[in-house]
Amino acid sequence: MALRRGFKTEAETIAAEIRSDLKVSLHSRLDPQLLAEHLDIQLWPLSQLNHSTSSVEGLAEAITYLTAADTSVFSAVTVFSGTVRTIVHNDGQSLARQASNISHEVAHGLLLHPPGPVLDQRGCRLWIADAEDEANWLGGTLLIPGPAARRAARNRRSLDQIADQFGCSTEMARWRLNMTGARRLQTA
């Protein structure tokens, strides 16, 4: 992950400003659905598409597969209609994973990443690494800001406790502790 110079500090500033706007402290859980609502970004759980587009052949089976049989195949995507952003997210995944998915997609919006095609002419997924890296970083920072990660580490909180406090997965808690240098504080 090669982020542009100064981006990590920018992400911390964005997260602090957003939390301030929502009146959520740096050390409290941020509800990504409330954040999306605050930014006028619609959220569509994937399972709801099953009911609203039932006339599309094979769609119901595909949605059932993605939300029940193999939830790891699809997490979330931002869909554009002009300048309106809608996040379609896999509500078949755990609530902790949904928080990460929604935060990631909201981060794309906060960073004003432009829309683009999802697939190339061969049907392969297009991936803009810099934009994805930025959204990963900001999405994680929105969930667990650096100061909160460091405080949790100084207080010797376990990954499960941190994940529970911030409504995210233990994987996200581990990643944020590692990426913010907080992990060193736990072992010091």
Describe this structure in words.
With 188 residues, the protein is mainly α. It has one domain (7-183). The chain is 55% helix and 9% strand. The protein has ten helices and three strands; from the N terminus they run H-H-E-H-H-E-E-H-H-H-H-H-H. It has helices spanning 7-21, 32-38, 46-52, 59-69, 95-110, 129-143, 146-154, 159-166, 170-179, 182-187, and strands at residues 42-45, 76-81, 84-89. The chain has a three-stranded mixed sheet with strand order 1-3-2. Helix 1 (7-21) crosses helix 6 and helix 8 packs across helix 9. The model has no long low-confidence stretch (mean pLDDT 92).
Features of this protein?
188 residues; mainly alpha; 10 helices; 55% helix; globular
Summarize this entry quickly:
The chain has 188 residues and is mainly alpha-helical.
Please specify the SSE layout and strand pairing:
Elements: H1 7-21, H2 32-38, E1 42-45, H3 46-52, H4 59-69, E2 76-81, E3 84-89, H5 95-110, H6 129-143, H7 146-154, H8 159-166, H9 170-179, H10 182-187
List the domain count as a whole number: 1
Instruction: Evaluate the radius of gyration.
Output: 17 Å
| Number of extended strands | 3
Classify the beta-strand content into a percent band: 5-15%
Q: Fraction of residues in helices?
A: 55-70%
Trace the largest sheet across and list its strands.
1-3-2
Topology order in helix (H) and strand (E) letters: HHEHHEEHHHHHH
Poorly predicted residue ranges: none
User: Main sheet?
Assistant: 3 strands, mixed
